[in-house]
Amino acid sequence: IFPKSVEIVEVGPRDGLQNEPVLIPTEKKIELIDKLKKTGIQRMETAAFVHPKWVPQMADSEQIAEYCREMNYIALTPNLKALDRAIAAKTPQIAVFIGASSAFNQKNINKTTDESLQECEALFAKAQENGMFIRAYVSMAFSCPYQGEVTFEEVLHVCQRFVKLGADEIDIGDTNGHANPRIVYERFAKLRDLFPDTVFVAHFHDTRKMALANVVAAMQAGVDKFDSSVGGLGGCPYSPGATGNLATEDVVLMCNDMGIETGIDFEKLKEAATFARQLSTRL
Ligand code: HMG
Ligand code: MG
Hints:
The chain has helices spanning 12-16, 26-37, 61-67, 80-88, 102-109, 113-129, 152-165, 181-194, 211-220, 248-258, 266-279; strands spanning 7-10, 44-48, 73-76, 93-99, 133-139, 143-144, 148-149, 169-174, 200-204, 225-228.
């Protein structure tokens, strides 16, 4: 019931750093990306073409993208303006993000769920014309700091639209870190049943120290792609109280012990994690 191998997508340089209150010099971010590249990680989220006023830490995304141009990196593109910036930077993979909860969307991207889904139509079409790979996040897929419980129907509503629009993968996010193994197992099992041809990714936060248990539960439901953040960096600026993402070194260590291949060198990863923690004022 466990996969032979899993893909670990490193989101530290974006999801990890976006919430750091003190601006980190671009060269330091590049040094982190470089250390991560040396671990054998194949795919990383490194940039966010979001409004620099909303997330100042990501204002150097063009320079980061320029450094990453030979890599298979992902950049967040919440709207058409962001997509144009990604196209100009020749970004290979983009990520859109919509919360299953409308209250969160209003805070995070200034739109309701249905307004965001509407905007996605033109965005997907243009990204597809440009040959880009599209990752589609369903954030707050288990619970939400603004509305509390998030129902499976709310998650399904967003997933259905993403599938219809032709997302290359759907990333189910426990953005505030309140999921538990049971709900994770149940939601992924149902989603995989309803959308057998869709690639699902699991994205956990470790707010209540259940991220690894949630990884195991998702594996048991057939998921073999996971996001994690080196050093456990992270938190979302619009998710009060959420602490870091699942730490990459934790999930790689667990997979090593379980005989599940990740293709990542653990010793080099530990070095990258030490460096990542030095960049953070919160760890
Ligand atoms: P807005 O202010 O509502 O945008 O921002 P607008 O369309 O009303 O435009 C206002 C002005 O902003 C205009 O300029 C636009 O040109 C400009 P003006 O005409 O006034 O001079 N503008 C932009 N400039 C640069 N880049 C852009 C852009 N868009 C408009 N892309 C927007 C809407 C979506 C841009 C804003 O709300 C935003 O940037 N939000 C980002 C929020 C964010 O990054 N949140 C964190 C990521 S989500 C997350 O962490 C969860 C996730 O990790 C999953 C998980 O952890 O579970 C994915
Ligand atoms: Mg996250």
